[in-house]
Known about the structure:
With about 425 residues, the chain is α+β, with helices and mostly antiparallel strands. It contains twelve helices and 17 strands. Helix 3 (about 70-80) crosses helix 6, helix 5 packs antiparallel against helix 6 (about 150-165) and helix 8 crosses helix 9. The radius of gyration is 28 Å and the shape is elongated. The protein starts with a strand and ends in an 18-residue tail after the last strand.
Amino acid sequence: MSNQHHFFNFSDKEVMTPHIKEMNGMFFRIHPVVDENSPGEKQSKEESISRGGDTANSTAVPFSDLIAEFSEEEQDVLYHRVRKTPGSDTFRLWLDQERIPSALFAMMIGKGGAGKKAIEDETKARIIFPDNRSQEQTKPIEIFSYDEVQLIVCRRRLLQSAQNARFKIPFTHFLCFPASSQSVHQSFQTFRNEVTKKCGGSRGFSPDLFQNYSKLHLTIGTLALFSQYEYGLAADGLTECFADGLWRELNEGPLHCRLKGLEIMNDDPSEVDVLYAKIEDPTGRLQQIADSVYEWFMEAEPRFLQDKFDHVDNVKLHVTLLNSRFRKGEEISEEEVESVGGKSRSRKTFDATDILKHFGDYDFGTVHIKEIHVSQRFSSDSNGFYKATRKLVLDAEFFRSSETSSEQQQPFVHESYSDEPTCALDENLSEQ
């Protein structure tokens, strides 16, 4: 027993992810050991390749087996981006191409550094988060380890951590069709006045529950975008949807829909949070476009979407008219109410029984849908609508000409203002 070595301070994860060392073209698992006979049980300088420290009894692991579980993309990172540190035994990897937004760093690091430490302990790698104060990060995350294979495992965990962080931060933007029609705006204001006059005594009702008429829109989905690079990806996604053939839905003429009839988000009309106008889309083209755009983001850029309705066949097209979140003291965007990723909060409902009874078939008129916006929440443009990070003009002629033209064109209107992503919920900001 006096000459026996034992493992110290070793968790199950450490046993499963030891340091790997190359010897004559073969790769071996290396475990640190401590000599019980040494004073204070200090760590021995020796290294054991097997539990008995006998190289002859060690298990050689071919490099191909170690990386067999890696995806093609991860293997590409391993072979082309991992670098050996000059004058050192360590390997390094900079996550510059991953473009993890600095807005997510704090949540990835965790309280007291717990999140960062958990990944480091699991992967035996060390992580350096740059101190980037602005939303647009200037330096990437850096990770280093004595084992290049563990760098890839660490990278994978960091990407997972970044995605988890996205769902803990309220979304910043949303995809929508603006319901911008002068006749609809006038109808909505008439509706507001009549409802206030006839149903003003209903429990929980207040005029401040109404949406701002200039911000009426049909939501396609909510997004978490944290940099100009991600704004560009969202815009590219919309263009790709239409370039792939969706533009042919525009070939049949202008897109129109009618806002007619009222509905609620729950089953009890006496306990309502959201009352909305139903959409009549006789050709089904608007629904097809909304579903196709949402589907594209689900498949190509799922990290951006915060309301993953993969259990629903179609996007629920509607226009929010009244929302208990607009009640003074509780003002936040209706988009968060519709977002599965948003945090639920206590709210005071209102009784919509009389509103549905007297105005259930209210006709707000027809809207000509001309654009899709990537809108920034908690914002107002000069026309009263939300500021648009990007606007996609629904122009069939543009996409038709793009199919036959070799020149790269963009059907986007880029706004000139400087927009900063909203990463924290400000309860003092009103959507009105």
